[in-house]
């Protein structure tokens, strides 16, 4: 909980402090408004306050509150766009408190529990979620574009990211954006912890809502675990093999997917640095990936 509070204070300053102070009263108000009971905050909160609860007598739900109105608006638009196809369902919205009520995934284990020991099953499950999310070719609402996110690379400080890595990511980003493939509304942060088992089907949670190409979405796949990074001697070979398998499963160019993975790793490092975090992990992966470009 302390880490969550520190994250909010780092990002939102005095606004975040006020939001945290009001949180108990806000929770009480929403619990009354939406007839919620048995509220249990999730462990390991990062930037949103998330609570499991019961709605009425028998419906397991998740209550999610954000200090950031913009990110919540984008998430709501994404949930409304996906309409439960490959994604958890949105039940209620309270704009005043930047709060949403969601269906709770049951039993709720993450795709991470199948990875990497059940690699083939995990890849197929991941690919099925990607394809379900991209079922709608029509983009009916305004969403941020992928190039909006990637502006962070142009604004990144090379005191936190080695200049050669940053310049290569910017060059690749420009090449990729200048040769776009079909655009869809994407989840935007589709790593393994954001895919849960729900009533016999894998579904995504926490969509960011961004317009981009399928390879950008797939580049968020967790290709290497921290344990493998620490213990495996042939990490580069494992990484290359998994990239090719995922690319083939999703009918993507492995070259383009590899490029997007590199760009996203440097983007993640830039965001970590901007939020006063540690960018070392994505930078380690980027250095391993670099010879494969």
From TrEMBL:
It comes from the Bacteria. Coiled coil: none annotated. GO terms for biological process: secondary metabolic process. The keyword Transferase applies. Signal peptide: none annotated. The keyword Transcription does not apply. Keywords: Transferase. GO terms for molecular function: phosphotransferase activity, alcohol group as acceptor. It holds the Pfam family APH_6_hur. This is Aminoglycoside phosphotransferase. It comes from Legionella septentrionalis. The lineage of its organism: Bacteria, Pseudomonadati, Pseudomonadota, Gammaproteobacteria, Legionellales.
């Amino acid at each position: 909980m302390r880490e969550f509070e520190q994250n909010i204070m780092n990002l939102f300053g005095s606004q975040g402090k006020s939001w945290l102070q009001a949180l108990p009263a806000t929770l009480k108000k929403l619990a009354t408004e939406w007839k919620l009971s048995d509220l249990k905050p999730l462990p390991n909160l990062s930037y949103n306050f998330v609570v499991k609860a019961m709605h009425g007598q028998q419906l397991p739900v998740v209550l999610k509150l954000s200090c950031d109105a913009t990110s919540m608006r984008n998430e709501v638009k994404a949930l409304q766009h996906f309409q439960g196809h490959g994604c958890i369902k949105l039940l209620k919205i309270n704009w005043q408190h930047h709060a949403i009520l969601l269906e709770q995934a049951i039993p709720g284990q993450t795709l991470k529990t199948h990875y990497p020991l059940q690699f083939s099953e995990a890849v197929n499950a991941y690919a099925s979620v990607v394809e379900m999310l991209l079922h709608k070719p029509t983009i009916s609402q305004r969403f941020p574009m992928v190039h909006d996110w990637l502006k962070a690379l142009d604004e990144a400080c090379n005191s936190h990211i080695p200049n050669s890595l940053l310049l290569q990511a910017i060059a690749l980003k420009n090449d990729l954006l200048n040769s776009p493939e079909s655009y869809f509304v994407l989840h935007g942060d589709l790593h393994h912890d954001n895919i849960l088992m729900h009533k016999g089907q894998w579904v995504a949670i926490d969509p960011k809502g961004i317009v981009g190409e399928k390879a950008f979405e797939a580049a968020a796949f967790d290709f290497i675990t921290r344990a493998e990074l620490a213990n495996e001697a042939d990490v580069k070979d494992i990484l290359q093999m998994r990239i090719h398998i995922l690319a083939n499963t999703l009918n993507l160019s492995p070259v383009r997917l590899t490029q997007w993975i590199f760009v996203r790793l440097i983007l993640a490092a830039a965001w970590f640095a901007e939020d006063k975090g540690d960018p070392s992990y994505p930078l380690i992966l980027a250095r391993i990936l670099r010879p494969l470009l």
